[in-house]
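User: Can you help me understand a structure? I only have the sequence.
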Amino acid sequence: MKTRIGILGLGGVGGYFGGLLAKAYFDSDAIEIIFIARGETQKAIVQNGLKIISDTNEVIVFPNLVSNNPDQIGKLDCLICATKTYDIESSFESIKSCISQNTIILPLYNGVDAAERIQTLFAKTTVLQGCVYIVSMIVSPGVIRKIGPYEKLFFGSKTASISKLNQLQSIFENAGIESYLVENIEETVWEKFIFISALASATSYLNQNIGGILKNPANKAIYIALLNEISAVAAAKGLGMPNDIIAQTIVKLEKSPQDATSSMHRDFLANRKTEVASLTEYVVNEGAKYGVSTPTYQMILEKLTR
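Assistant: Let's start by predicting it. Here is the structure, written out as tokens:
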């Protein structure tokens, strides 16, 4: 029987990594890739395939199936989900019947509470933890643009069987995905969260791209204040962050495309719903919960939620 992998959320993350999987396994006798999509995205991919544009080339891929019909999708062995954090619960509504206690779910969201929220929905299902580093976005339905060479996927679990984790890692590697199966996945996810939360909050508040944050001393000071506050929250939660986590995070940002910005900033500019609850408010709430002061996050939250 084929291993059936569903991709839920065909934005910058799901579309890019799902596209690599679809390209690698379209003619496979062992693996089937299913894009879970509806509306204009479904129509575009069925007619024209999923186009992935990078700095050096572009490719069009077709999955084995594009559908939002649970009867067509059937039972899934693995589900990779990468919708917006505000859509986590609602995005699973139509495909609940496709998920069994044998399904492995890999969340690739910007926030850090996705695995817990999904586990609440599917108590008997194995839910991994994961995160990615990539600059990518939707250009139009069925078209993904990736900026820069950086793309890394991290995942792991304290409870899943090592054989299943190794199988998933092998699937990723054979698709040309730079993936890492890590033991201390919660800390790894929080390292990414420190990076993206501070960036999303700063770019949205200041209405600046990465270069505009780093090259302006006042803007950079706000960004560093955010890093200090969120790192203090992580420490209060007992997470083993590197001693130089703030310096590491600044280096990551310096290596990022300077004309790029956060997805939350792009959503604010387009007057779309944003992930401010998961990326900014969550830090304020966790700070209050653990007795950590987060005045910069609080200031930004107040402006972004007016």
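Now, to help you interpret it: The two ends are 53 Å apart (CA to CA). The first helix runs from residue 12 to 25. Let me know which part you'd like to focus on.
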